[in-house]
TrEMBL record:
The name this protein goes by in its record: GNAT family N-acetyltransferase
Listed InterPro entries: Acyl_CoA_acyltransferase, GNAT_dom
Ranges where the N-acetyltransferase domain occurs: 1-168
Length: 172
């Protein structure tokens, strides 16, 4: 597996990943984070055209997972409740993080890449997204508080990893 920037040829694969992730979320007790239509095709196309979307592919170049890797500031992160960000330094973010199938190490590979390439990394997730919370915990992220999503006002749990180089990466 390796991570690379997505190209327009990856759109179909990325949309399949997001469709699979929505179904998994629903089955695992998290039906509200993305509902049945997030992220919309137009946002995925925008992520590809701006160079934000990263794909995790296998040796046959099949898309196994994807995520948007962005630089801050993020307007939704400007106000954090019931906690605080660990610092005010520039940061990168992971958004729209999804895998095609669970339990194959794809999520860990993608998050490890983001930690290696990011600075002062920030992530948010839904309160009901226990698999993502577990992955963040396993990679040294700290819970920071609650943020609100501007598009709909929903709450998200906010996490940060300020010194990714100092954390221990689990053996694969």
């Amino acid at each position: 597996m390796h991570i690379r920037p997505a190209t327009p040829a990856d759109l179909k694969g990325a949309l399949a990943v997001y469709k699979s992730a929505r179904a998994f979320m629903c089955k695992s007790g998290n039906p509200n984070q993305w509902g049945d239509s997030f992220p919309p095709r137009e946002l995925v196309e925008q992520d590809i055209s701006t160079g934000a979307l990263r794909v995790c592919v296998d040796e046959n170049d099949e898309v196994l997972g994807c995520f948007a890797f962005l630089s801050g500031p993020e307007p939704d992160y400007a106000h954090i409740f019931e906690g605080s960000w660990p610092n005010d330094e520039p940061y990168d973010m992971v958004h729209r993080f999804a895998v095609l199938r669970q339990g194959r190490g794809v999520g860990g590979t993608m998050l490890d890449w983001a930690l290696e390439h990011g600075r002062n990394l920030r992530v948010d997730t839904h309160r009901d997204n226990k698999p993502m919370q577990g992955l963040l915990d396993s990679r040294g992220f700290s819970y920071c508080g609650i943020i609100r999503i501007g598009r709909n006002g929903d709450e998200r749990l906010a996490y940060a990893c300020c010194d990714p180089k100092a954390r221990e990466v689990p053996e694969r």
